[in-house]
Amino acid sequence: MVDDELLFRVLKRRASADEQELVRRWRAASPDHEARFEAVRQILEAASRANPWLLTTPPSTLDLLEEAARRDAPRSRSWRPPWWLLGSVGVAAVAIAAVGVWRAERPARPPALAISELVTGPDETSTIGLSDGTVVRLGGSSQLRFDPRADQRTVRLKGRAYFAVAKQEGQPFRVETEAGDLIVLGTRFDADARAGDLRTVVVEGRVAVTAARGGEARISAGQVSRVVDGKLLPTVPIPDASGETKWVGRFLAFQNTPLKQAAREIERVYGVRVTVDSAIAERTITTWLADRSLAEVVRIVCAASLATCLTEKNVVSISGSS
Predict the structure, then answer these.
(1) Using CA atoms, how far apart are residues 272 and 9, in angstroms rounded to an integer?
(2) CA torsion sign, 195 to 196 to 200 to 206?
(3) Residue 132 CB coordination number (10 Å)
(4) pLDDT at residue 174 tops 80
(5) What's the DSSP call for residue 22?
(6) Residue 16: which residues within 8 A CB-CB, separation 6 or more?
(7) What angle do CA 237, 238, 243 make, to 5 degrees?
(8) Cα 188–194–196 angle (5° rounding)?
(9) How do beta strands 154-164 and 236-237 pair?
């Protein structure tokens, strides 16, 4: 059985050869397995940069929350995760909430998570994985409020964010802003909300826009919507929707995205050529990667899609597993 404790040992290089082989096969068997492994790895990496003691004994979720609450108590009644949990990467605290990597050691006390707000500085970006599978890349000088429970799919945004929304039939995902609301089932889009203004660029799928002072519209991939002073303006096409999201940097988020489309986005972000065997071009992938090297991206994408990859100079070739 592959559990989080085993993944933790493998990542710390304390697992036996048999355990390492077991995890290798487990990761290759399912994109969901690879995504879980990646989440555990990011938690360990983000936390260890600020707190080396996390590498020795994995603390319980309650321990992390209690320590954070003690540090923050003199400043505010409402708890916010400290800098070493969110940091510039913004992965550790949320991934703990979403994946539950470290289990509470005291079951008599329910591990109710109080994480509900993420705030970035002027020159900071932060990536957050919500418990429903949605991934958000938050831009500078921005704020995201959310409910950590998996059945709650409404967030409140001030500032800029890129969303890769996990699809759940019959349960739309809602983004609330002062200018209006965005409602989606499963898509990727960029939203910039400042006071009564809201600009939305759809990269994939469709988004319903409801302006605060009247007006509704449905926008599709390759279109941009503007709400100015709470009023909806006409939707217009945009030549390169992906180009409008360059601010996210080395960030990729796929939600059941065809491999051929994922390849185009890798090309755009990393400036390389990516070819995909036509036999697997429609194979889908669900994973996200923030601030990773090209080699790491290729390895993870190919493992998640059960494909074989070859990189030569500036060309990445993706083919079906042999």
Answers:
(1) 34
(2) positive
(3) 19
(4) yes
(5) H
(6) none
(7) 160
(8) 110
(9) unpaired
Return the higher-pLDDT residue of 148 and 300: 300
Q: Which of 92, 88, 18 is CA-nearest to residue 54? A: 92
**Residue 170: predicted pLDDT:** 85
Give the span between the Cα atoms of 308 and 296, in whole angstroms.
14
Beta bridge partners of 312: 315
Ramachandran bin of 91, using left for φ above 0, alpha for ψ from -120 to 50, beta for the remaining angles: alpha
pLDDT value of position 96: 37
- First vs last Cα of the chain: how many Å apart? 26
DSSP letters, 209-257, are: EEETTS-EEEEETTEEEEEETTEEPPPEE-S-TGGGGGGG-SEEEEEEE
Determine the residue type at 194: R
CA 82 to CA 68: how far, in whole Å? 6
CA 41 centroid distance within chain: 14
Cβ proximity of 72 and 82 under 8 Å: yes
Q: What is the DSSP letter of 57?
A: S
* Eight-state DSSP code of residue 305: T
Residue matched to tokens 């929707």: 241
Task: Name the pTM for this structure.
Answer: 0.62
β-pair type (180-184, 173-176) = antiparallel
Distance (Å, rounded) from C-alpha 162 to C-alpha 177? 14
